[in-house]
Each structure stands twice: as structure tokens, then as C-alpha cells.
Amino acid sequence: MISSAEPTEQQLDDIKEMATVQGTTQQILMGPKPTGEATSKDGKKKKSRRSKKRASGFEEYYCDPPITPEEHAEEKNVLYPPHRPFVDRIEECIQRFRARRRLDNRREHIFSQYLMLGGIDATVRQFQSSREITDETMEITGKSLVREMTADDVINRAGEGAYNHRFYNPRYPEHWDVDFSGIVAGFFSERFRAICGTDVGVLADAADVITNFLNYVDSHDVCPEYREDVRNARKVCKQAREELPAIWEAVSLLPGEFNTALSTLYCCDEEVGSSLGPSGLCTTNRKQAEIYKAATITIILGPDYAKGTGEWFVTDTVEQDFEICEIKSPSTAALANYKRLNDYFKERLADSVSEIKPCGTMVVQPVSVRDGWDNSASETVMLKGAGRSFFILEQDILDKLGVGMKLKMEVCTLNVGLKFIKSITDIRPTFYVFLPQELMFGYKDPAPNKRPAPSIHDDEADDDAGDNDD
């Protein structure tokens, strides 16, 4: 073991002189500086660590930080007291939610569209940025007033002629109701698909940002009189996250191989030989279609179905909306029969017949769906006098459908009474609702036209100029 003797005074002086020359006196005598205390050539301190990234508020396990008793008292007695009008409370809540969340461009756009569907003006306002506000002005004015002045989400309270008819105005509350769950259902029924398409990632962001906002409303007790409605709206977000991806997959699979086989046999001209897959048109393999039809009808409907009726043909074709009332998956016996058939075909006809998928049935009821294209119905209603019918579909398609979904289909009826799907136009979720304000998204208030009306006395040059203006 080696022990070190203390350095003499002369040795210390020599070390200091060497350290001064090299500029590392402190490092030699006292060790290296801790991270974050590095100095530049001019002797000024510089940071070697970047500050931590601020949370966006949409992390998986994020929760709002605890508030002080003073902040709680302010929320309870000043911001969200029950006696304060709901319009003022929800406006304050939206502005504070925006200030406490870091919305990226995608979430910003989705949240703004959601608010505008709910009657709140969330359009971007020019010249109201908070970047030009100094700290001194902030201290004098107060954060709450600055937030109010620079907010994009406002409820216009102007009088007639000075407000946008697309949005809610407390001066004219006619035809407006507070309905959190209805707005969420309407957003995911129509508005989301119009702005975001069928992207599962965007759907997850949309459900997250709206659920996050509803959680904020509930946790801060903004409107206790609508607490149950707010919680139902969160359930709709969960439904949308589960149902919409399944619907998008079902649309790509429908009408299915069995219905495509019947379309090939009874709706397509054999001489034309059109060839399209599961989009609802024909396939050219009529032998496969005959085998698929015979096998499935025998297993699902029995070997004696329509026996002795002669040739089958289409008697009626109609495009209509249907609501799913019941889904019957193939029974254990049916699955065993399908397996036995497929094993036989694989052994005897492997090169000419593909595998036949197990099928079940979907029981539907004709409905009239309110979707904005006409005024025939105020809401989705069952048609009186219209009985239920069933359609045969593959099991993998039935697994993606649910009771209560609405389907817009082109349906053919055979002379033996069997119906099949020729094509599918749309599938709507169980919570589908069409909101009237959907029709107002592109609305603009009429403006007076200062141009005089056309006249026979106008010069041709003026007419040409007017055409160019368009």
C-alpha cells in the first residue's frame, strides 16, 4: 500500500505556476467543474444542458398539477360559480384549456373544428397575438384579461347585423341547445371524415384532444348541471375510437365473396366479362361463383331451399338505408361443414376452387336516415310497414359490424325471395347523428353588390370586363 506525503510549499507554487500557464488552475487543485458550469473563453458561464421539454398535456399518464387553495376558491367563486351564465363559464374554460395545453397543428385544427361545430367561433384573428405584449403590460393588465383579449375562441354577443350567423349568440338562443354528447357524435359522424379522412392515427389524436377537453370540463366542475352529458360525450369518443376503424375495414371488404358471386351469376353479362373484386361488381370465374353459391346456401339455408323453383333471376334492385338489428355468426355445425367442404375441395379441386369462407347472417330493418341531403325526415326513423330481411355475409365481415350501425346499400332481390348486396355506398356508426350546423360550415352572410344590374345599354367592353371579374 502506497501512501502520499503532503506537497511542500515550493511544490505547490510550481503547480500553481503551471496551472496559470495552461489556464486550468481550478481544475488541477479542486477537480473538474460540475456539468452546467462550463465557461467560455471570455469567462462567462454558459449552459451545457438544455431545459427539459415542457409537457403537452396529452401524454398517456398526464394529469393537471395540483392547484392552490386560492386557485380553487377562484374557480369555485369567480370563474365557474353556478350562478354565472353557462356561456361565460364555458368560454372561460375553453380559453384556459388552450392556455394549459400545447396543441400541435393537427390537434389545433381538430379542436377548432370541434368547437365551431358546437357553435363557438374559433377562427384565427389577426393582430391579436400576445407576442408583442411586454412584461410590464402583462403585470398591469393581468394574465386573465390578456388571455381574453388574445383568445381565438369567443362567443360573439353582438347585436343583429354584427355577428356571424354560423355561430351561437346568447342574444338569439333560438334553435340552440347545450348537448355535449350530441356535438361529439355529430363531429365523429360527419365533420371528422370530411377534414381527416380515414387515418387511424388522426382518429386517435381527435379522440384524445376531445376527451382531454371533456376531462378538463369535468375535473374543474365547469358545468355541474351537465355533468352526466359530459361523461356520455366521453363514452362517444371511446365508441368512435373502436367503431370507425372497424367500419373502414368493413367497407373495404363488403359486399363480400358470397354476394359478389351472386352478382356475377345474376347481375353481370357473361359476354362482357367485367372483372372487379370486392367493390360490388362481377368476377369472371363463374364456376367458382356457382360453387360458392351452392355450398353457402346449402349450409346456411338448407339443401331444400327454393327447391323446384326453376331458374333464378333478379326481380328488383333498390338502393336503401338499413339499420342492423341482429348479427348471427356461423354455428359450430356450420363451421364444421365449411371445414369438411374446404378439405374436400383442397384434395380434389385444389387448382380450380379457392377456399370458401364461413358465412353467417345479418338481420336488418329499412330506415330513413337524416343526412342533410333532403328534408324527408327530422331524424333517423324506422320505416313503417317495412319488414326485416337478412343478408348472408362472411364471418370476418360480421365481426367488424355491430347492432345499430346504418348501411347504405344497393340490394337485389331474386325470384326465390333471397336478397343479396350488389354494392355498398356507406356505413354509419351506431352513434350517427347529423347536425344542422354541418350545412352552415361554408355559409357567408350576404353582402350588398354595388355593381349595377346588366343593361342593354352596357358597352361590349364593359361586358367583357365583367366576365373577367368572375
From TrEMBL:
InterPro entries: Arb1 (IPR018606). It comes from the Eukaryota. Residues 25-58, 445-470 are annotated as: Disordered. One of its GO terms (cellular component) is ARC complex. GO terms for biological process: regulatory ncRNA-mediated gene silencing. Pfam families: Arb1 (PF09692). Residues 459-470 have a biased composition (Acidic residues). Residues 43-55 have a biased composition (Basic residues). Signal peptide: none annotated. This is Uncharacterized protein. It comes from Chaetomium thermophilum (strain DSM 1495 / CBS 144.50 / IMI 039719) (Thermochaetoides thermophila).
